[in-house]
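Narrative summary of target 7.
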Amino acid sequence: MSRPTAAATVDPAPATMRAVVVTRPGGLDALEIKDVPVPVRRPGWVRIRVKAFGVNESEVATRKGESDAEVTYPRVPGIEGVGMVDEADEDGELRPGQQVATMMGGMGRSYDGAYAQYVTVPAAQVIPFETDLPWEVVGALPEMFQTAYGSLTTGLDLKAGQTLLIRGGTSTVGLSAATIAKDLGATVLSTTRSPERTGALRAAGVDHPLVDNGTIADRVSELMPEGVDAVLELVGCSVLPDTLRTVRRHGTVCFTGALAGQWTIPDFTPFMIPNGVRLTSYGGQAADLPADVFARQLQAITAGRLEVPVAKVHHGLEQVRAAQADVESGTTPGKHVVVLPTITPTTPRRAEPL
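Modeled conformation, tokenized:
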């Protein structure tokens, strides 16, 4: 396993680097490895030598041309990454060699992301950390932990002793939310469409795995007659009316994702929300995962209190196409992570397939 080294010396960046570039929307063949210039850092930004990154559904959407107008091409995808600071403002708090994570904020969408040997991002969305966990573990964490933690805290204000329903539980965010919620002291119900995946939910600490056939309110009512305290909605608007029926009066539903692809409700009326039930949403950024919280999560993983739902570790940019294919198929629950080898000087080459 490749392990991070805190405050290590960083060699000077080369003039060019290898990166996965989407020049046009398309299938997996739209992902090409190219030699491109190492990004020049602007003031207030940080250049990171990428060690690992997670592969996410949103990057599949970017490759297929299904993202919003924020995305332009050509584009290096990648909404998250971990690595070491290569260059930063001298009067800032970050130093070369420091272990850092970054995510979101237009990364891989309005500017080039982490599917590369180097990435530059605003300093405000960089989280420093220190750990001996391997890069393939740390690389799985930023986006899914930020989304899960922000949904449970900012979105739901979840407390110890409360009951939480996660709809879309075998997604990476769903699995992460289950482990975090159990660490907080909550009782967790979580759904999957596949009966064979209930074991994965139990492995993440879920107390009550539920098979979701599109309607689960009655089943939840059998387990929790007064309704659950909180729901993390990850499936989307297609099931939201049913989800709202699972919550107790003055309980809260937080809409965070739409795995089923439906983000809106035709002819929506507020009166579809049951009396006294609260509906909110979460779509935060890196700042919603403070460095001290991330540090506690890393310590909890080291101590074995939190499990990291890694589906598969891929090695090298050449494996990005395979990783996206696995994510798109949805056959393996958990996070797909790409780990990059040690950087060696590059010479210009033609673009090549993955």
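The longest strand covers residues 45-55.
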